[in-house]
Amino acid sequence: MAKSSSQDELRASQVRRAANGRENGRCGFVGRDGRRCSERGFIEFHHVHPYGVGGEATPGNIELRCRARNAYEARLYYG
């Protein structure tokens, strides 16, 4: 069991590092006008393919969003 837990922790840290490095620690939301959100506080992990419908926590599926943009994208997807 401990081995699986440590593997999960390693994977989670790899995902966090990848998302933070790619997004430079700030919200990665880009609006219709092409401008990127500049928020650096209240940052959350956003599943591009939502977790609730099978999206995995992989570096390619996780992006950073501020709380407001993450909630906005959830409303767009789930209604």
Global outline: globular
How many beta-strand elements? 2
Task: Report how far the terminal alpha carbons are from each other.
Answer: 38 Å
Assembly category: single chain
Strands across the major sheet, in which order? 1-2
Helix/sheet category: alpha+beta
Beta percentage is 5-15%
Give the fraction of residues assigned to helices.
40-55%
Enumerate how many helices there are, as a single number: 2
Architecture overview:
There is one protein chain. Helices cover 43% and strands 13% of the residues. With 79 residues, it is of the alpha+beta class. A two-stranded antiparallel sheet has the order 1-2. The radius of gyration is 14 Å and the shape is globular.
Outline of the structure:
This protein has two helices and two strands; from the N terminus they run αββα. The protein has helices at residues 2-23, 67-78; strands spanning 43-47, 62-66.
Write the topology of this structure.
Blueprint: H1 2-23, E1 43-47, E2 62-66, H2 67-78
Antiparallel strand pairs: 1-2
Keywords:
alpha+beta; 2 strands; single chain; 79 residues; two-stranded antiparallel ribbon; globular; 13% strand
